[in-house]
């Protein structure tokens, strides 16, 4: 029986056995590293281009390898996004690669779950046993016996677990980010600004290569940046964090407005910091919108010609009025559905608006008119009515801000253009996820901050490589769509073909509407990342087989896994990345043990299940069949064919790109294609517009309304659009505010609002076992305002309990004015040091903020988002001090210092 984790206990045993303890104890960490490889006379040194994967930014790296071991990492200045920068997480790549806790070989559980007893098995045995079990249940219970889950940020193959799920005929894949991260913004921007079916659109997020305008300080005229619920200096230190610092350093500088309960490094540089009460962003956005409208600060020309604000709304359908519905056009005409109606002030009558604009018309922005027997208002009128109550004072009262500061912030944004608004993940983490993205869209649209120089909303050309290999939506059938859990209600999940986590978990625990039995999981630590983590033991209990694909064991491995499949660290892995106008490579620098790229693991299982008779898997490996349904995504059979697929349309081979490291596929000049909407569509000879129902940007979102009614534009089965049953209630096409269910306005028992946000030391659950990083941030800080601390008897550096209605955890108080009053900030944390003890569950129960979070509804209608931020807690001193057994002092982490291994051969050819 071998144990997975090399923590202190395991380390002591091993060290005593080999007599190595004294040697290790005497050497300092870096010294030990160098000593092992300092033999200059015999060494062979080479430099390899690659890129970091410790977060999604994929900063370009040059790795130095000596005698087959990676000894140095440095930034490659050739990337326009990272420009030679690397952050602490990236520079920890060597410690992560050679971490003694790596999952080295496939393992199978031999004792009870939670006892950390596993034995080594071969890859052949692992693939065979897993495939046999999956097929046995596929035949007995159908594809829905399988659920797959993945991690979000940082996982390069984001589409691959979804593709695998589809290839095995299962409807359910999920991810703890997803509805709580990125998806609500991506989908909403796609519906309102345009992206349509492909979903690819620029959005106001500064990771993932978004906001490309930021990376060209010599080109962009941007003058003001609003950072709304985002902290670039922490989430992308060498990417957008660095870029924004560079913009600020230009002669003309950069004005910043920061909307964030925490005083971030960016807030420290801002003209205005608005320490908003968590969970109230949409109220503040509506305040901004009202102010911009009332003071006529909006871009009148853009709003008139390129938004749907002047269009009349049909009160019966809630859609934009079509000309033929009121006798102003031919219902049978080709463009019948695309001809909208304005109120022409010249003739004082309703009139159809020809695409894109007719100078003969003078459309009214505001007004309510009798048209064709209906009372129709313009979209702008409905928006103005919706925000009417949101005066500066009301916004200030609800968001716990100062009215004058709000006004000052808006004025910086409106008066000192060109300006842009970056919307971070904060609004994705509340049941108002869609509305937060809508509010941000509307603000940017009103100001005309769309596709002009300096704007963040841009459609620059698509890169030639295949960033993510994609999904197999073309083999999904109607039955799978109908069975996807939570999808009918929350159809926005369709943009990534994902299921709704709370509905999946309910199915697992109740067997309704059916019983999932097997769980394939490919990320770090679900016990630390999923909301209301205390629900997990009951879910794990119900599962018959759980496989964990990861680089090292986490709480999930010990508590849940039956099979552990070792995946590659980024220094072993391969990929191509689009960095604005360049392509960056990630290539294997070394390869240790029997780790395998996850893409190969999925392919092995799919191929075996195809042999065992799974009809979906048979399609997924059949190039001819896939071509017949318009897909080129046949499951590869090995590493080389997968690397070749990543190359997409790049004009060179993988090996050639590997030599180059970076490749400029388009000049910076040609990359900056502004005003895409005004470019002429060859098919029509007219302006292209935007990919929305009206082909204009839509502050009044018909796309959101129709998503709820039909699933369009993302429901497709057998390669065709498929009309889903409507959600129980229409999605609202206009922005609205709801007070959080748990609110300080009404909660006396739990008076403090908890929120979260990134710290620069870790990426989600990863790197918590990297000694240097844990030394820098050993335990979670609970940031609390001095007045709130005093009112709760809390002192600086004291251990405190943080308790919500779901559970309680411990952290260390950091009393600071850098946080809003009556709010605490805490980061997600888990403690790998407990894994190899008699109480492994302490790894996720002691300091994990997700013990506190709330997943029992209210959900966001569009996306099913649950509450990770902006809920109520109480905070009080913990006289017990630190949790027993937690590692806190620098020397505690020594068992995690690098353990060297020689490279191994490829495992699967
Ligand atoms: N309370 C609370 N909960 C949250 C959040 C919060 O702010 N507060 N944030 C949410 C957000 S935004 C997200 S995106 C999720 C993140 O949740 P998860 O993505 O599940 O996070 P991790 O468990 O760290 O697992 C993802 C990690 O997998 C690693 N990985 C990299 N490559 C591979 C690979 O090839 N194979 C495998 N198997 N793994 C790889 C990446 O380094 C990445 O960090 O958490 C969410 N949960
Ligand atoms: N170091 C590091 N970098 C990461 C990650 C990581 O885990 N670690 N994860 C990656 C991933 S997947 C993501 S999604 C991104 C996230 O990157 P960002 O979008 O920057 O997200 P956070 O830092 O989590 O949250 C942004 C800010 O929102 C603030 N905030 C909290 N509650 C509220 C609120 O109610 N309203 C407003 N307006 N602000 C609020 C927090 O204080 C925080 O400063 O980071 C990516 N990069
Ligand atoms: S920001 Fe840091 S962790 Fe992210 S890719 Fe760059 S170096 Fe790696
Ligand atoms: Mo995320």
> Structural class, please?
alpha/beta
CATH topology of one domain: Rossmann fold
Q: What summary fits the major beta sheet?
A: 7 strands, mixed
Estimate the global geometry from the Cα principal axes.
Answer: globular
Question: Segments where pLDDT lies below 50 for 5+ residues?
Answer: 6-41
Q: Terminal Cα separation, in Å?
A: 29 Å
- At the first level of CATH, the class of one domain is Alpha Beta
Alpha-carbon Rg, integer: 27 Å
Which strand-content bin applies to the residues?
15-25%
Strands of the biggest beta sheet: in what spatial order? 5-4-19-18-17-6-7
Identify every distinct bound molecule in the structure, by name, code or SMILES. Answer: ligand MGD, iron/sulfur cluster, molybdenum atom
CATH architecture call of one domain: 3-Layer(aba) Sandwich
| Number of separate helices | 32
Helical residues, percent = 25-40%
Organism: Eggerthella sinensis
Protein name: Molybdopterin dinucleotide-binding protein
GO molecular function: 4 iron, 4 sulfur cluster binding; metal ion binding; molybdopterin cofactor binding; oxidoreductase activity
Pfam families: Molybdop_Fe4S4, Molybdopterin, Molydop_binding, TAT_signal
How would you characterize this protein structure?
A hairpin with a 2-residue loop joins strand 25 and strand 26. Among the domains are: 278 residues, 3-Layer(aba) Sandwich (Rossmann fold); 145 residues, Barwin-like endoglucanases, CATH 2.40.40. The relative contact order is 0.16. Strands 5-4-19-18-17-6-7 form a seven-stranded mixed beta sheet. A six-stranded mixed beta barrel has the order 27-31-28-30-29-32. With 909 residues, it is α/β, with parallel strands linked by helices. The chain binds ligand MGD (2 copies), iron/sulfur cluster and molybdenum atom. Iron/sulfur cluster binds next to helix 4. GO terms for molecular function: 4 iron, 4 sulfur cluster binding; metal ion binding; molybdopterin cofactor binding; oxidoreductase activity. Belongs to the prokaryotic molybdopterin-containing oxidoreductase family. It comes from Eggerthella sinensis. This is Molybdopterin dinucleotide-binding protein.
